[in-house]
Structure formats: structure tokens, C-alpha cells
Amino acid sequence: MPNSAEPIIVAEAVGKRYGHFQVLDDCSFKVANGEVVVICGPSGSGKSTLVKCLNGLERFDRGRITVDGVRVGDPGVDLTRLRSRVGMVFQQFELFPHLTAEENIMLAQRRVLGRSVRDARERARALLDRVGLLAHAQKYPKALSGGQQQRVAIARGLAMDPAVMLFDEPTSALDPEMIGEVLNVMVDLARDGMTMVCVTHEMGFARHVGNKILFMDAGTIVETATPEDFFGHTRSERAQRFLKNILHPMGL
Predict the structure, then answer these.
(1) Residues 39-61 as b or e (16 or more Cβ within 10 Å = b)
(2) pLDDT of residue 251
(3) For the residues 129-151, what does the mean pLDDT come to?
(4) 106 and 75 in contact (C-beta within 8 Å)?
(5) What is the pLDDT of residues 31-80, one digit of tens each?
(6) Diameter of the chain by CA atoms?
């Protein structure tokens, strides 16, 4: 469970524009150590942009973001080092096709953390075992299912011993039968106390695993609530419509 220590992520009045289009507008929130924060909302609401701002993959124009004591927008920030502390799992896996599962997990350990081949391989194999893929260590991504590739991607992020894991719609590119195997890994991480920020439409995960839910629309954080309040007593009309559409898409 989250503790009362200083938050590991603080976003204050974050704003971003693409030309005349306001992508993010006055977004503020905090994430405590060990907390699972779920960001949800309609497509185009700025969810992915916001989570990518947390590790410098997207620049923001206004406001301030601090992650693990590092000011993300500072000109002199070492983004490589920051990203080693902030694991990122994308929609499309982003594995290197010419490397095996084991090699994909070893690469950043060797280049960024300076681990020996032996130590990097040992860590990779331990994490592949953790996500149920040790038997597939020598397979290339094309020989793995989408769910297996995403689990390798999660293991790759964990290999850097991050303080925070970010997930940008990690199940959106998967066939329905593969979604559960990825969510199960994420549930296990949450149980182990991993700090997580997850952009997802998986409302079952949000309800049962999240500690806090941020609902976004049109680039703003419309509502911040516990899962109990969000699903049972959501205040904003926009969030009510979203839940109705996503939980009962055919009006059943």
C-alpha cells in the first residue's frame, strides 16, 4: 500500500500545445511510493501525452514535473538516467526484432547500467521466469505472441530496477485472449508494491488494482478519485457518460 512519504511523482499545472491545439491544460497530480494510478478517458483526451511527459518522451510547455527527485523539464537533466529509473511499456511492445527475448532485456542493462554480460543475463533470465517466459528466452519477437512480447517488454523495463513503471495502454494492441496474461503480470507487480502509472481502458484492473483514478477529457484532468468513488459516485457528467459507454457499450 502507498505510504505517507514524499510523493515520487509530482506534476504541477502541466500544459502542452501542438501549434494552436491545447493537448494538455493545467494537469496536476501526485503519485505516492507504492501507489497504482490509473489514467483513463476517451480517445484523444491527452492520456498518452501526459504519461510520456513523465519521463521526457514528450516535452511540455508549462508547469513542472518532478520524478524521483529529478526535474524532468530542466535543460541539463540526464534523460537516459531518468528513464533508467522510470520504466516504460508501450502499446506496440517496441522490442528489437533482431535480438532474442533475453538479449532485448540485457541490452539497456549493459549500455546504461554498465552491468556485465553475466549479471545482465542472470537478471534477464530471472525476470523472464517472473513473467512466465523463461522457456522462451532464446526466441526472437516474431516467434512470440503479442501477449508474450508485451511480457518481455515489461521484463525489460523491470530489468533497470526502476522506481516507477509507466504503462501506455499496454493491452490495446492485443487479442482479447492475450489481455489477461499481461494484466496478471501487472497485478502481481502492484501486489509487490511497484509504483505504477497506467493508461488503460481495462476498467476491471482500474477498479480492483488502482489506488487512484485520474479521468481526463480534452487535455484536462476532470476528476481524481478512488476507485470506489469513481465507479460508484463519479461527480462529473463527462465521466458518467464515459463509464456508461465503456461498461455498457450496447446499452445492455
Answers:
(1) bbbbeebbbbbbbbbbbbbeebe
(2) 46
(3) 96
(4) no
(5) 999 999 999 999 999 999 999 999 999 999 999 999 998 999 888 888 88
(6) 56
First to last CA, the chain: 35
What is the percent of the chain with per-residue pLDDT over 70, rounded to a whole number? Answer: 96
Average pLDDT of the residues in 106-133: 96
CA distance linking residue 190 with residue 210, whole number of Å: 9
Helices (H) and strands (E) in the chain, counts: 9, 10
Cell numbers found for residue 64: 513542472
- Alpha-carbon span 56 to 36, nearest angstrom: 20
Q: 206 and 39 in contact (C-beta within 8 Å)?
A: no
Looking up cell 528466452 gives: 137
Which of 33, 5, 24 is CA-nearest to residue 165? 33
What's the rounded Cα separation, in Å, for the pair 165 and 218? 25
CA gap 222, 62 in Å, rounded: 18
Cα 148 to Cα 64, 137, 206, distances in angstroms: 36, 11, 22
DSSP labels, 65-87: EEETTEETT-TT--HHHHHHHEE
DSSP track, 201-212: --HHHHHHH-SE
SS3 content of the chain, % helix, strand, coil (to 5): 40, 25, 35
**Long-range contacts of residues 230-237, Cβ cutoff 8 Å, at least 24 apart:** 230/206, 231/203, 231/207
